[in-house]
Amino acid sequence: MADRSAPGPDGGHLIGALSKFKSNSLGLISDLQRRFGGIARVKLGPYLVHQVTDPELIKHVLQDNPGNYRRGRFYRGFNLFMGHGMLTTDGAEWKARRQVAQPFFQRARLESAAPIITECVDDLLDSWAEPARDGEVIDIVDDVMRLSMGVLSRTLFGVDLRDRADELLPVVRFAIKAMIITGKVEQMLPRWVPTRYQRDLKKHQAVLNGVLDDVIARQRARGTDDDNLVAALLSAEHPETGRPWDDRAIRAELKTHFMAGHETTGCALAWTLYAVAQHADVRRKLTAELDEVLAGRTPTVEDLPKLTYLRQVVDESLRVYPPIWVYPRDAVEDDEIGGYHVPAGTTVLISPHAAHHNADVWESPEAFDPERFCPANRHTTRYRYLPFGGGQRHCIGHHLALLELQLAVAMITQRYRLDLASGHQVVPTGLVSLRPKTGVQMRIERIDQE
Ligand code: HEM
Q1: CA-to-CA distance for 175 and 256, rounded, in angstroms?
Q2: 334: CA distance to ligand 1 center in Å?
Q3: ipTM metric
């Protein structure tokens, strides 16, 4: 076993790089990657962390030795809004949850739900008719979040949670800050200390729990024959106890899918529309492809294989702006990564953002260039491109996300031209998701169809 420590900044003191992580987490991970390469050792407050960005070393953690890397201390924050569910558990508990949900994420099954997606996109397009006519500037972020909330809840839960978006959107905005542990005092105080943060936390948790309890109650009243995830969870038996799952466990699964699925896809769509608006050549090429293949009609799943450039645009957006920009694991036993010692109990950070912006691996990584995903290059992307993670814990929802992104980008580009409002700067910020810090303000113009 190697006894060498990986390179990294001097971090022996108590605070280490934590204050930088709090104020500019994206800057810190890029800086570590640039200065120290594929594996860097850093102290974040009291925690020893190895950031891994080399594709082979990422493969080691996610695919070759995954049993040694579990959800750990940084995932505890996720319990606040996801409970004890598929994303936050390990081993047999995780497996049981993944098995119940897996059938609902089969590609063919999701593809048959494409008309639900196009209906939800149509609603979004209709809601933009007025601002387009009045030449108004709008922030598109909440709108795309509503869209992904509608798609997720209709395809998986058999209800339309857009009806409750006004309650849910503030919950999610709070949650994506609260779930990431940054060592802020308010996060560290015991829950019984009556701070404003604790009051807000409880209020938002109660709203989310209440909405999802309603979803469960409605499904229970309808019975368990419906073909959706809620009905499947209500009729599932726990593999170890043989007993049905209780409502708390079912709610944790629904919270997990809700939080993991709609925020990520919404962010990805906002970033893709932003990127297309910023690159006239990309917009031109995309519009030409859509015109040629669709000639103005609504896209279907059968059209997608012909819309190759559309897929390249989505892939490149997920490279430059990966919605899950970092995720941690804790090492169970001592390990060796890239010849360096990684002690048991310490954290390994996988950052798609740092990996996707690594100049040793990507040519001109800061440039938005969909050509790098042309079909001839696709096979070379393994573990240097990981917007949906990798190994056995890869994203269960990736087919749904990609389907929704392709259909939504196509339909929006067909009907509207989006331009960034003059003077508005879009700045990525690393919360649980990669969010545009002050929104994405767009001027929307209707493209007249023949
Ligand atoms: C663009 C959209 C999405 C992105 C970028 C994304 C990204 C990711 C990533 C990177 C992971 C792995 C995290 C880790 O290993 O720690 C993950 C896991 C997960 N994602 Fe997604 N995701 C997206 C959409 C969705 C959707 C639509 C759903 C569900 C409706 C979903 C549900 C999940 C769940 C439940 C897990 C945990 C899987 C497990 O641990 O077995 N995601 N996602």
Answers
A1: 12
A2: 27
A3: 0.99
To test ligand 1's pocket by mutation, which of 264, 271, 351, 432 has the most ligand atoms within 8 angstroms of CB? 264
Instruction: List all residues whose CB is within 6 A of at least one atom of ligand 1.
Output: 86-87, 98, 152, 256-257, 260-261, 264-265, 268, 323-324, 327, 387-389, 393, 395-397, 400-401
Domain extent for 132: 73-327+385-446
Dump pLDDT digits (tens) for 250-307.
999 999 999 999 999 999 999 999 999 999 999 999 999 999 999 999 999 999 999 9
Q: Are 58 and 355 in contact (CB under 8 A)?
A: yes
Residue 55 falls within a domain, yes or no? no
| Interatomic CA distance for residues 199 and 201, integer angstroms | 5
Residue 389 C-alpha to ligand 1 middle, in angstroms?
Answer: 8
Report the number of distinct structural domains present in the chain. 1
Would residue 336 count as lying in a domain? Answer: no
Domain assignment present for 15: no
Beta strands, E only, 136-177:
137-139
Tell me the residue ranges of DSSP E strands in 14-172. Answer: 39-44, 47-52, 69-70, 137-139
- What integer pLDDT is reported at residue 14 of this predicted model? 45
Q: Let me know if residue 24 belongs to a domain.
A: no
Q: Which atom of ligand 1 is nearest to the CA of 404?
A: 27
Report pLDDT digits (tens) over 347-402.
Answer: 999 999 999 999 988 999 999 999 999 988 776 668 999 999 999 999 999 999 99
Q: How many CB atoms lie within 10 A of CB 360?
A: 13
| Centroid of ligand 1 to alpha carbon of 137 (angstroms) | 32
